[in-house]
Amino acid sequence: MPQRKPFAGTQQGLVLAIDVGTTYSGCSFSVLDPGVVPEIKGVTRFPAQAPGGSSKIPSVLYYDSAGKVRAVGAETLLDTVIEQAEDEQWTKVEWFKLHLRPKSSKTPLRIHQQILSLPPDKSVIDVFADFLRYLFSCCRTFIEETLLPDGKSFWESVKDRIVFVLSHPNGWEGRQQSSMRRAAVLAGLAPDNPEGQNRIRFVTEGEASLHFCINNGLTVQEDEGIIIVDAGGGTIDLSAYSVSNADTNAFEEISRSECCFAGSIFVTKESRVYFEDKLQGTRFEEDVPRITECFDQTTKLQFRDSDEPSYVKFGGLRDREPNLDIRSGQMKIPGTIVARFFQPSVNAMLKAVVEQRREARKAITTVLLVGGFAASPFMFTKLKDDLGQLSLSIHRPDTHVNKAVADGGVSFYLDHFVSSRVARYSYGIECTTIYQSSNPEHQRRGFLNSIEGSFRVKNCFSLILRKGVQITELQEFRNPFVYYSYHRLQSMTETILEYRGIDKDPSWIDVDCNMYSTACIVTADTSKISATLVPRRNPSGYEYFQLNFDVVLLFGLTELKAQIAWQENVSLLPISRLILFISFFVPEGS
């Protein structure tokens, strides 16, 4: 395990990582004391938990008819709460995290149809904020009650400097990060200003899991690659890494990260389909939700072998129907049937691992499995057998794999093990290009008259960053552009597009057009530079202005940033910061 350095700051601080999962959520933290080596600790006590506590609570909320939160987390499992919720017709909200998923994500239709709607007048950001507010309150209480010598005084001294690390699936990007940031501000984690928002950081679940594994004894040879599989409730996140510098424990991503919707909830949903078919038209038909819940909470976790039957205990001694394999309040299910519930998730993981291995720049022989779903003995054994046939070994860390993301989120901030990442998509902007009469693509599209007097072809995609390129944290990607206008520009806006298709060198946005989407929008105040521009005249005698600028992309950590820069007093200065996801706008004359 690497030796962490003492905290180099001059005043106390706190790092708080919050892992909001599809089914379960948790928090970890680290106290930052000047000159002291930080330690990572988990929040292990939440309201309504059984004695002994746990590092996770259900990602579930109850709202009353007025839209007020009435119960959260472990509170939603109390019999009194369930009874009151039924009597007063509260709305149960679960799987709300999936409402944030990218529109381009390939959510299986059967799950897409079963994602519960949100309460009236509540957006997913509202629900996310309510849940974050609850977790934040739980963290505060835990730290105040457990930190010695005086947790309350410590909290008061650091509360305005807390750094929050929010984790999300590998497949989530700028739009989802922007929504999570708005939810965090709405929840009161940080103020809505640049300083406050800078205290909110993001990490992918795959990268957080890597940090967790490193802190729990992971060793990798410099010529070896590994795949981290974070198997959660909703998504399976895969990331491939290798050591770039053994002396400093620096890792580099060697393949594009992947995210597939094949987590443990899909096993439960497969079981529900089976129960509904088997019990349709019987007196137990109304018990399907209860039977499914019991399967999810016990049978699914205990299942080991397809050669042995499994049992779902859901009722009392009088619940008996031998023809339905129900005796003494429990249903018997053949092991081969239960194994069938797991198969879609297993297949998805195998396919994703094979794809990661194929794309990786170094040979991969090892797979590390973490996350709550990793605790399933059947799934681990099945993956071990199937991956073994591909000469891949699979391992689980010898510790609580369900807290990997929360602990790893803190380590991400403290240790910073990953030095470079791989671009998941291609990025660029829409523009025009000079018409070439000999170019068949230009002939097919025709040309238009530009302000400055040239003939140009529109719908051109100017590639700034290509998919699969390895990116270091300080690396910039920039392309030069020219902006023409009949008037002095007071501001300008550029839309950064991402291309998700298979073309390695996309050139036209009217080809494979469904694969283009807005990554972010960057705006700039150009009033000062416009005043210095010298008027020009086109062949028709009309006056126009020309602004030469660069579009700059940075992928410093796990967030895309964009800037517009121009030449001023011999220096190329950035003149704008990132503004995420306003409306799509293509500037006239770009």
Mean pLDDT: 89
Fraction of residues in helix = 25-40%
Number of domains: 4
Instruction: Specify the biggest β-sheet.
Output: 8 strands, mixed
| N/C terminus separation | 53 Å
CATH class of the largest domain: Alpha Beta
- Please count the helical segments: 14
What is the CATH T-level topology of the largest domain? Nucleotidyltransferase, domain 5
Name of the CATH architecture of the largest domain: 2-Layer Sandwich
Rg, rounded, reads 27 Å
According to DSSP, the number of beta strands is 31
Structural class: alpha+beta
What amount of the residues lies in strands?
Answer: 25-35%
Low-pLDDT stretches are 570-590
The CATH homologous superfamily name of the largest domain equals ATPase, nucleotide binding domain
Protein name: Actin-like ATPase domain-containing protein
InterPro entries: ATPase_NBD
